[in-house]
Structure formats: structure tokens, C-alpha cells
What does this fold into?
Amino acid sequence: MSSDKSSSRTRDDGRLDREAALIGKARLLVTDELGFLPLDADGARLLFQVFADAYERQSVVITANLEFSRWGSVFGGDQMAAAVIDRIVHHGRLVQFRGESYRVRHALMQEG
It folds into this structure.
């Protein structure tokens, strides 16, 4: 989703509609590390559409290291980020993990 050209090609050959239909049939959607890789404007709109279509129909899990206040940078603006966040928190459960990373701790144990 990070390339304007790939998004346009997908849309042009009809694959976007087919992919959206497949995503819509999934019982669980998992988005891991939201915001880790940058999204272009098309990618942000497509991801917003996935979340909007899943709202009240599918279970969604999202992991992110970004606070909600920084989601505007992921979705190309605070207004679209607010719309996504609104859908997520309406029926959602927010779980915040604090403390040291499991991966970091495990890597340190291997060294010692």
C-alpha cells in the first residue's frame, strides 16, 4: 500500500474489489505494527476503508507502538485518524502493555 503505482494498478485490473471481498469474509483481521511503515495517501484511504467496512461486522486486532495522538501521521491527517479511532474504541477493548520488550529481554538472556 505504500506505492501510488501499485495501488493504481490493483484498482485498474479489478483486483482491489476482489481483495476487499476476501478481506470482508475473514472472521478476524489482524493489523500488526500499525504505523511502522509509512503509508501513502492511497494506502491510508484503503486501510481506512478496511477498518470502516469491518466496523460492527468483523473482529479486528491492531497492534501499534503509536499513541492515538500520533495516528494522524499514519492516516494522512487527524480527521481520518479520528474516524478510525472512533470505530475502534466504540466496541473495542484497549490493552496497553508496559515494561520491557519480550524480544529485548530474550535477546539479553541469550547474550549472558
Remarks:
- DSSP finds six helices and two strands in the chain.
- The mean pLDDT is 86.
- The longest strand covers residues 28-34.
- The beta strands are 28-34, 59-64.
